[in-house]
């Protein structure tokens, strides 16, 4: 490996310019470093001293403003895939979890009678929204995976997925609060319902974080030091 020098300075600046999931970003920066080191070593074997070999290797590799956009697009796709996979798995799972709870709560049939008339339609609306979001997540996961070569604007897919989360979370949140209120009228909320609510909130926070990160990594302008 090269000592601190032109290559180290270059990959440090590249790492600072890129935004995205830490793991893929670290791998990309390491990949760039390895490529530069291999080129520098080949040049050094050809007769150049180490400092000059590193300088030439960096020049041949390209300026950060030239290569960073392509690296950033790869990071954006990685972030989009993660959010799509999260939605594809977690949203339908949340829907199933609450479907089971609403089916068995309250245990007393009289409790169902005391539920307000809007409870059923609202519950079905929440289920429908979550199922649709899960389907969209699955389609986006495919588009950003095997279908990536066929889509011209992966950035549009990623940002649309993030916007979907921003719309879905408050909508489902408000409707879920209404269902909770209606269930309280039906005789109290069980402990397992509270646990399910905590799980739902945790998943929502992770989804929100993923959406914010997707918007961040798909910004047009990179901060290149």
Radius of gyration: 25 Å
Q: Biggest sheet: strands, sense, closure?
A: none
Which percent bin holds the helix content? Answer: over 70%
Q: What best-fitting shape do the alpha-carbon axes yield? A: elongated
Average of per-residue pLDDT values: 85
Structural class estimated from helices and strands: mainly alpha
Span between termini = 24 Å
Total helices: the number is 8
Portion in beta strands: under 5%
Count of the separate structural domains: 2
Short key terms for the protein model shown above:
8 helices, single chain, 2 domains, mainly alpha
Description:
- This protein is mostly helical.
- The chain folds into 2 domains: 6-62, no CATH class; 77-217.
- Helices cover 80% and strands 0% of the residues.
- It is built from 8 helices and no strands.
- The protein has helices spanning 6-17, 22-45, 50-61, 64-104, 109-114, 119-143, 154-185, 191-217.
- The radius of gyration is 25 Å and the shape is elongated.
- It starts with 5 loop residues before the first helix and ends in an 8-residue tail after the last helix.
